[in-house]
């Protein structure tokens, strides 16, 4: 994902801002890392450059 | 079966390409109607292969985001786009991960009726749109299109089957103005001569003509106040 | 020559019928898109023969008013309608005789560009519409439709020739949201084989195809906030 | 014109309410008469059942 996405993205649950913690970057893209809600503290993974902002229960159920 | 499991499986089978090919027949004239301007931020809900955003980018919008509930589908879409201004996210229609008033226009093709709570999805869309932003909602599965009724039997996710007026009412209930409603015909699909029927799921040529040329895709356009 | 004199003369020559026949090709699919409901009050600006209101009444709107700057045209329209819920008025686009927020939806076919001050006309339309009300503005005379450029030479009233983006900008300047813009093709007009050209005002078959099938009628849909 | 038009019609110049003075009625229709602005006093004719609400200068110029 591009860092510019941070301007419009928010926590899917409570709509508060997210904080970016990038593990791996490539040419301006964030390849992996974590987005953490500044309010509820829930965190969302970025994998292969794609943030997964499903509510936690929809992300984890198998 | 969850949306994620169902559509991860579709992506694994490569079904996003067949959908793009078929849906493009009516998505193209629908996308052409959208009043997008240079620099606009556009959202595609249930993006599949992401073709709608690639097409809109050719008209010069600023940023394009495709949301999909299936991580595998989002990965496929990401693979089809080389464009820095197009991005994909995994997310759910009922829990949009976008700030209030952050989106200029939204589009959705053949995806809205999978929402777990479509009324709430419309409220979420209204929330994320700027004032004057539009939601172009296109569906082939709806009440008047009787040929689509059988589709529910082939999928475990519960699908919403509203008629034209139920779409208008639901948009208004969610606080969206209804600017337009239209049945957009598929003029491109080839319909064989009567002698070749039954063909696909159609018993008669008339039934296939009615499905594609008369009913086609139901478009409802909402506008955020 | 004033609008009144010009179009009184057209009405005296019976030209409203030819316009109805030709304009219906694209007016029909455009009217079909309007999100009218039972009981709505709809306004037709520059109503001519009044055909648009007769068609909308078949879908069950409540009241239909046709405004025209030509008393003779309004009289003709009145003569064509037997319907108690359809009424006609003589009036001018820049001085609409309707109360603020009194109209659910407005339509205009091949008339808007005759307005003396089209920006002010849009402000007037915004004023008379209810919140969420739409203005369906359809024109054949516009910049991209090069075959229409010659029309000004045949009429003394000054005509406004905006392009697609000028229409969008003007709607927004007047406080209307732009919900849709589209080029609606005329699929019904007969286009003779190439050997019969020059035909009417067209030098070549390609020019006639471009005029009707490619450009057709420019539709801009505004929504009152 | 139908009397119900009075609910939405107004003076084209100042947008104030109009007052109806019917000369001739037929089956619920007003065939001829006058609409007068309750504010500026300008009056507008109804002829053959059709109100003429052009601004006075556009109605009168020849
Ligand atoms: N509740 C939900 N939230 C997010 N995406 C969903 C969803 N329900 C279904 N989808 C997605 O919607 C898509 C429907 S298939 C249509 C794809 C594309 N718009 C096209 O026209 O071809 C799938 O990719 C599916 O994963
Ligand atoms: N400034 C103005 N105010 C009111 N009516 C006007 C006008 N300028 C032009 N008109 C009317 O607009 C009409 C244009 S011709 C189109 C008529 C009809 N809508 C159709 O599609 O066939 C004429 O009847 C003319 O009298």
UniProtKB/TrEMBL annotation, chains A, D:
Going by the entry's taxonomy, the superkingdom of the source organism is recorded as Archaea
InterPro entries cross-referenced by the UniProt entry: Trm112-like
Supply the NCBIfam families for this chain: Trm112_arch (NF038101)
Q: What protein does this entry describe?
A: Trm112p-like protein
UniProtKB/TrEMBL annotation, chains B, C:
Question: What are the alphabetically sorted keywords of the record?
Answer: Methyltransferase, Transferase
Q: What SUPFAM superfamilies does this protein's entry cite?
A: S-adenosyl-L-methionine-dependent methyltransferases
User: In the record, what terms sit under GO molecular function?
Assistant: sterol 24-C-methyltransferase activity
Record GO biological process: methylation; sterol biosynthetic process
User: Which CDD domains does the UniProt record give?
Assistant: AdoMet_MTases
Q: Which residues form the Methyltransferase type domain?
A: 43-137
Q: Does the keyword Methyltransferase apply?
A: yes
What is the name listed in the Swiss-Prot or TrEMBL entry for this protein? Methyltransferase domain-containing protein
To which species is this protein native?
A: Halolamina pelagica
